[in-house]
Amino acid sequence: MNDILLTVKGLKKSYGAVEVLKDISFDLRRGETLSLIGPSGSGKSTCLRCVNYLEKPSGGEIVLEGEHIGRVRTGDGRERTMTDRELAPQRSEIGMVFQLFYLWPHLTVRDNVALASIKSGRLSKAEAYELAEAMLEKVHLRHKAHEYPERLSGGQQQRVAIARALAQQPKLILFDEPTSALDPELVGEVLGVIRELAEEGRSMILVTHEIRFARDVGDRVIFMDGGVIVEQGPAADVINHPAKERTRAFLGQVG
Ligand code: ADP
Ligand code: MG
Fold it and tell me: What ipTM was assigned to the predicted interfaces of this complex?
């Protein structure tokens, strides 16, 4: 039984002449939480966005359960990049939670969570609402189902965004600094939900500056700097006993 869910191999990304990701390779095992840490501008967001082809990689491959993300083999045996339409089913297998929540202000919380399942025709309206309420329960906001986002705190809005990602029933969830836009007193409730998801065995990649959280909740940590992986390993090893000077210097600044 192959327990590798995601393989990122030789991932590269350039913007013009600037190489932002240089040969990034790592695996994510099923049920694992991987934290991606590193200084601002090191390429963490770009890496996440390449995993679900929000950005088209300049090189390398992304393989989710044996399926090449964003690539399709044509009749003559060659490969090309998928169109957005072809990508949609693959993207729906990968949930994404951003720093800003991007909820629809004119929709209730429940409608925000149910929208994608209804629009895609994947579920009936009744099924989508049932799923939405179950996912809101997971983030402890079922009682807010009929509120509008503006009536919620930032922490609650981010939990709604997490429920929305869960409603896709994704194989993998990517979090890009999900607590960075929050007032400090609201960070804990969002991290608490992410911790519960980790404990129930979700497969997740989390970009975060919450180093203690990465150590305590993450199974593994990748430290990136300048578009390369400087070091990766079990969370406690990398954070408590970094092998590389660059990692030590970074942890010294943020810790
Ligand atoms: P991080 O998330 O670690 O802060 P990013 O992945 O956002 O880093 O950015 C890595 C580098 O790529 C930065 O130098 C940034 O300026 C550059 N970059 C990101 N997106 C673009 C873009 N769309 N066009 C040009 N440069 C970009
Ligand atoms: Mg970023």
Answer: 0.97
